[in-house]
Design a protein that fits this description.
heterodimer, A: 319 residues, four-stranded mixed beta sheet, 10 helices, B: 191 residues, alpha/beta, five-stranded mixed beta barrel, globular, disordered C terminus
Chain lengths: 319, 191
């Protein structure tokens, strides 16, 4: 192939003199497109990303969004066990105190998970995007008196500014940037699990694994929990799906009716375990089950269960 | 059925003996904070035959790593962390006279037995209720390991901290009861 003049898998066979004649065209084309595109693209300085991330970190840690609060109030109404009511009363009162005293809801202000949905027609200027996000986390955790819990996994030496964040980036249509900050505590993260099921395990196997995970977590994941489940894809895709499920507005059902049905069924099964608030027994073990799915390989059935304690923090902004 | 008790720390033998698993407690008095790294250091000192930075006799430990103290406040948010991570260190500390531990979640069988052997108690605070619990803290003083940041040891004076007795000096364990209430799982053949 390489010996034949003007032959390429892309262009096919083109005569040498034709290539000579039009040799400037690609350069002119590129210039026009870039220049026009450059003028048309919306620009966003990453300094604004830093300021926004800082603000979202502080807000997320001090105040729960209305969706999670509503689920907690509903849980208090449904709970019957004396310990469960004692605990849920404290959980709700704690939200008032945190807002009033400008204190974090939980002392574990987490490792900062940041989702970035970047419009493909947006031009980010002024520096490195990930560095800007980390600068925002640094500022937010410093100025908001949030706990710095991030350290090197092996030496266990703290970075003392809660960076780096765990950043998930996705390109999307449009010219906006959506930032979601979700500080994640280790209590519930530690009890999360992933398993590569066999296709023969089927939906029943998925249910069993979710229930086993919630049961094994018991009181350690700070129930009532929100259960994020990722089904399908590959190993890492399933884990990311489970995390993504957790930042959906809490309590909203999947848009896929089959999945929504599974969410409902699992929530009922989990709340029959009797684990209850803080694992001391009761009706409410989970506030919601939220599932995301993705096509997978014929030989695979990955399932990830990401547990989220009742301090389910997530805040978004669109720039 | 549910009793609300006032409890003062450091705790006396007689007072401890009256605690029963399932009691609701308003705890007032002195607590020492210690979590993973502090436990590791305390136990390392004991194993090296060195003295601890504070006497454990009849004292109470609170498993917590508070958030930083904002200006004008006594302490940042300070809710309990998961107690089971402290399980490997706990029997040795109980041997030193530790009487009360405050955290969240269940303990290992070894710890339940050690609690019974040393006539101690394990109380749980509500995980995540950290701003509320901070309001119970009237004084906080750093006493050891400032390099550990949130894991340093503080001496706290608290008033009416709302807790539940999970494991009493007789070894009765509220979490074991919770597991029994989880029976539907076993009936469905869950492992």
């Amino acid at each position: 192939m390489g010996n034949r003049t003007g032959s390429s898998p892309v262009l096919g066979t083109i005569k040498k003199d034709t290539l000579q004649k039009y040799r400037w065209y690609p350069a002119v084309f590129c210039f026009l497109v870039l220049d026009h595109g450059g003028m048309g693209l919306r620009k966003l300085n990453v300094d604004l990303v830093t300021a926004t991330v800082a603000q979202l970190c502080v807000e997320a840690c001090r105040e729960l969004s209305a969706d999670v609060r509503a689920l907690l109030e509903q849980a208090r109404n449904e709970e019957e066990s004396a310990f469960g009511c004692f605990i849920l009363d404290q959980v709700l009162e704690n939200l008032e105190v945190a807002a009033r005293e400008q204190l974090p809801i939980c002392q574990d202000t987490g490792i900062c998970v940041v989702f970035l949905e970047i419009g493909q027609d947006l031009h980010l200027t002024g520096g490195d995007l990930e560095a800007a996000v980390n600068a925002g986390v640094r500022r937010g955790y410093q100025e908001g008196y949030l706990r710095k819990s991030v350290l090197s996994p092996l030496t266990r030496i703290n970075t003392f500014d809660n960076t780096p964040a765990v950043i998930h980036t996705r390109m999307v249509p449009g010219d906006r940037l959506k930032i979601t900050v979700a500080p994640k505590g280790a209590g519930s993260e530690n009890m999360s699990r992933l398993k590569m099921l066999k296709p023969a395990d089927g939906i029943e196997g998925v249910k069993r694994f979710v229930l086993e995970t919630v049961a094994a977590a018991g009181g350690c994941a700070c129930p009532p929990v929100i259960v994020g489940v990722g089904i399908g894809g590959t190993m890492e895709k399933a884990a990311l799906l489970a995390k993504t499920a957790l930042i959906r507005p809490a309590g909203t059902a999947s848009s896929d009716p089959t999945v929504a049905e599974l969410e409902k069924e699992l929530l009922a099964l989990i709340n029959q375990t009797g684990i209850g608030p803080q694992g001391l027994g009761g009706k409410v073990t989970a506030l919601a089950v939220q599932i995301e799915t993705y096509p997978t390989h014929i030989a695979a059935l990955p399932v990830a269960v990401n547990l989220q304690c009742h301090v389910a923090r997530h805040r978004s902004a669109i720039l | 059925m549910v009793r609300i008790r006032e409890l003062q720390t450091p705790v006396g033998k007689e007072q401890l003996a009256t605690l029963a698993s399932g009691d609701l407690v308003n705890l007032s008095g002195v607590l020492y904070t210690a979590r993973d790294a502090a436990h590791q250091r305390l136990v390392a000192r004991l194993e090296a035959g060195e003295p601890l930075p504070f006497a454990l006799e009849n004292q109470a430990l609170f498993y917590v790593g508070p958030s930083p103290t904002p200006p004008g406040k006594i302490i940042g948010s300070c809710g309990p962390t998961t107690s089971s991570r402290m399980d490997p260190y706990t029997p040795l500390l109980l041997e030193q006279g530790l009487k009360i531990m405050i955290g969240k979640g269940p303990r290992s069988q070894e710890v339940v037995q050690a609690i019974q052997r040393h006539q101690a108690a394990y109380l749980v605070a509500t995980g995540g209720a950290a701003a509320l619990l901070a309001q119970c803290v009237k004084k906080a003083e750093l006493i050891a390991y400032p390099d550990l940041g949130p894991e340093a040891i503080y001496r706290l004076e608290v008033e009416k901290m709302p807790l539940i007795v999970a494991i009493d000096p007789d070894g009765r364990n509220l979490f074991a009861r919770g597991a029994k209430e989880g029976a539907p799982l076993e009936q469905e053949g869950m492992e």
